[in-house]
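Translate structure to sequence.
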């Protein structure tokens, strides 16, 4: 299996509409988290966005659906849109807002609404004027995954914003890496046989299996043991529009556990904590407490209130007093 690397990029400036575009390098596709204003995503990137994960449908998180729809018209492909309970109705509202007397070849939007441990799915094919097909309902997998493909998994956690919002974590499977010092120690040199060795490491090498490397036959399980180190894949968490409390702290600590990066809203500075509470948003140091509890490598703040007029310095300082690696 090809190794997929996740390359994230905030869609907008930190105080403009929230959104995160994650490139799935190796697949040539993108996952998009939230659908706020998204003119900074190129048409090329939108057309390669196969999955969209919406935290909730407040207008600053969903107004960009129209641009995705507009650019996708005529494309024969599926676009998956995930979100909390109510998402299917919001999608239907979007489709109902336009006239569709012309037959569109595509795309088909596939809405997935997560409600507790249940996922409701409905297809909206362009060739049927985006009228919803039959509703399917299924329980979530035991590990809470809502989407798994090509070794890329997305999980979600319910958060509290007066309404239920969803936080997400996208991760790639562990991958085999070759220990170059062991290669030298065993007197072996690089070659196509390493690809075979990596596949064996992933699939599990049977006892007694052998592999020819550099003109000699070797025990495959032994080579795997000596040469292969399993490294953890990428892990990116996206959390926005939630209250800080014991429940959300626990949920995010689990969702974003050991993430490479946690993208977390920090609407308010600490001195505005009452305003944060009243609007079910976070302060900078509350975002940092999420990062610390989850043990992430890096915290990136976004969705910072415009009232601070682009002065993000105090938010960074307040977050860094709790958690070191903040951008
Ligand atoms: Zn909101
Ligand atoms: Zn918001």
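Result:
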């Amino acid at each position: 299996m090809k190794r997929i690397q996740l390359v994230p990029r905030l869609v907008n400036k930190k105080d403009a509409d929230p959104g995160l575009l994650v490139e799935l390098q190796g697949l040539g596709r993108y996952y998009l988290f939230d659908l706020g204003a998204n003119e900074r995503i190129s048409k090329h990137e939108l057309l390669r966005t196969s999955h969209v994960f919406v935290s909730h449908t407040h207008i600053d998180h969903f107004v960009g659906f129209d641009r995705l729809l507009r650019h996708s018209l005529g494309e024969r492909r599926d676009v998956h849109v995930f979100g909390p309970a109510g998402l299917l109705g919001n999608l239907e509202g979007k489709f109902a807002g336009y006239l569709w007397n012309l037959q569109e070849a595509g795309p088909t939007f596939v809405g997935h609404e997560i409600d507790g441990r249940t996922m409701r799915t409905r297809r909206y094919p362009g060739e049927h004027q985006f009228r919803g097909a039959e509703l399917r309902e299924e329980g979530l997998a035991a590990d809470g995954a809502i989407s798994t493909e090509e070794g890329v998994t997305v999980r979600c956690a319910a958060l509290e914003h007066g309404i239920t919002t969803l936080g997400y974590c996208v991760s790639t499977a562990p991958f085999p890496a070759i220990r170059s010092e062991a290669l030298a120690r065993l007197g072996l040199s690089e070659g196509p046989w390493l690809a075979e060795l990596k596949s064996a490491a992933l699939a599990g090498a049977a006892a007694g299996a052998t592999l020819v490397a550099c003109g000699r036959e070797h025990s495959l399980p032994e080579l795997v043991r000596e040469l292969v180190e399993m490294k953890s894949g990428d892990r990116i968490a996206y959390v926005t529009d939630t209250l800080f409390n014991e429940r959300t702290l626990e949920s995010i600590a689990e969702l974003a556990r050991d993430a490479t990066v946690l993208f977390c809203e920090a609407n308010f500075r600490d001195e505005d904590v009452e305003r944060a509470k009243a609007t079910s948003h976070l302060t900078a140091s509350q975002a940092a407490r999420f990062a610390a509890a989850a043990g992430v490598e890096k915290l990136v703040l976004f969705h910072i209130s415009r009232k601070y007029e682009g002065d993000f310095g105090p938010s960074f300082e307040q977050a860094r007093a709790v958690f070191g690696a903040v951008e």
